[in-house]
Specification:
mainly alpha
């Protein structure tokens, strides 16, 4: 639990940086849309900060910590050791800091602790702010691809869906992952219109940050971006090809300069189906909510056989009729709301494939690739529910589009009136 003085430091710093962010929102997005986003941003922060204070106050209770604090203890301890090391102390480097992925957030925590001392609440408030900034990015993507009405729905879903709130309350790396994914996609959308150094730098920096947070998402972002960049361009074929070559060259150069060859080799080894099966079995044996333990994904045929059940659990679990334990029970209202939004998701996807396919191709490819990968890899309800958030934020955009499509359909019907009665109804 964070002490009173450190809590005050965290509160003062949070007020300062959020007032600055709010001023930037209003300056960048003027008028009614800026007012709407500012209001949503502060309400979203309110929910996340209240949750952060609550989790921080009870983190010392072992039962509560096991249920809700989770990985926060690992990042807190690892960051604290890093800060000690940078201050001249000696310590044994934890295994997590030597892993091929996930170490980035520990260095983030360590940097904060090195400057401000061991202040858990400050990290939690920063996580809440990162979650709030993701709302702005998703809104911008939705508005860029569709319109402000669909973008408003996407922002509201990002701000107030319980899973988005919860993962931004503690010391989890999930908000940073979502933020980096969203920024990568935003940069790609901007690059398709105009090839600028600023957006290239944004894409490269957030991509490399993803490698330190969850490496396989980095490869999927790279595949979705570089594999579809040419087809998402509005300029001529020759100009598109030059832009593609330039982006690939800069990307490879940054990857070679910023990441050790040994790290890349270790990471790519995890795409072997045999290792994937071992990791899947580890989830099955250790998890209390395991599923599909009898499926073997070490062969292409086995991986394909895991897809149907994997997709069902990834997209719809925890099922209301199979809830066990407090954590799953708490997700019930959100799960029912999620089910109710499925028709809107379908309408939004159908509209996008028909009207916005070329523009939205990188996002569609990324969401599809990650969905299929998780469907094959995951064998635990809790983990699937957590990692679904990385796809959910793009589903929110499609849901917003679907809601607006339904409203427009009703408006057209109201204006034109009912059509002729079919013969079979006479």
């Amino acid at each position: 639990m964070t002490g009173l003085l450190d809590g005050l430091v965290a509160a003062v710093l949070a007020i300062l940086w959020n007032l600055w962010i709010a001023s930037r929102i209003r300056r960048t997005i003027p008028g009614a849309e800026g007012q709407f986003l500012t209001k949503v941003y502060f309400w979203a922060l309110g929910f996340r900060y209240v949750g952060a204070i609550f989790l921080n106050a009870y983190a010392g209770d072992s039962v509560f910590a096991d249920t809700f604090w989770g990985d926060s203890s690992t990042y807190d301890y690892g960051g604290y050791l890093l800060a000690l090391g940078w201050s001249g102390e000696t310590f044994v480097v934890p295994h997590a800091m030597r892993a091929v992925s996930g170490y980035g957030f520990q260095y983030f925590v360590g940097a904060i602790y090195y400057i401000f001392g061991r202040n858990q609440l400050l990290v939690q408030f920063l996580n809440g702010t990162i979650g709030g900034l993701s709302i702005i990015i998703i809104y911008s993507i939705a508005r860029h691809l569709y319109d402000s009405k669909a973008a408003r729905w996407a922002a509201l879903f990002m701000a107030f869906f319980p899973q988005m709130i919860f993962w931004s309350c503690a010391m989890y790396k999930d908000p940073s992952i979502l933020f980096c994914i969203a920024l990568c996609m935003f940069a790609v959308l901007k690059l398709r219109e105009r090839f600028t150094f600023a957006h290239v730098a944004l894409f490269i920096s957030t991509s490399l940050a993803l490698m330190s947070l969850r490496f396989y998402i980095f490869y999927m972002v790279a595949f979705a971006t570089l594999g579809t960049f040419l087809f998402a361009q509005r300029r001529g074929l020759f100009g598109s090809l030059l832009a593609q070559i330039a982006l690939v060259a800069v990307f490879i150069g940054a990857l070679t300069f910023g990441v050790r060859t040994e790290t890349i080799e270790e990471q790519t080894a995890y795409f072997d189906l045999g290792k994937l099966q071992n990791a899947r079995m580890g989830q099955t044996m250790l998890g209390k909510s395991a599923f599909g333990g009898e499926i073997n994904v070490s062969t292409p045929t086995g991986a394909l056989s895991a897809l149907p059940i994997g997709l069902a659990y990834l997209l719809f679990a925890p099922f209301p009729w199979a809830i066990s334990g407090l954590r799953q029970l708490l997700t019930l209202p959100e799960t029912l709301a999620w089910y109710a939004l499925m028709p809107s998701l379908w309408r939004g996807l159908r509209f996008t494939l028909r009207e916005r396919f070329r523009a939205a191709l990188p996002i569609l490819v990324f969401a599809t690739t990650l969905t299929v990968a998780y469907a094959i890899f995951q064998s635990n309800v809790g983990t699937a529910y957590r990692q679904r958030t990385q796809i959910t934020m793009f589903f929110f955009i499609l849901m917003g589009v679907g809601i607006e499509e339904r409203r427009r359909g009703r408006d057209r019907l109201r204006v034109s009136g009912p059509g002729p009665v079919p013969a079979w109804q006479r």
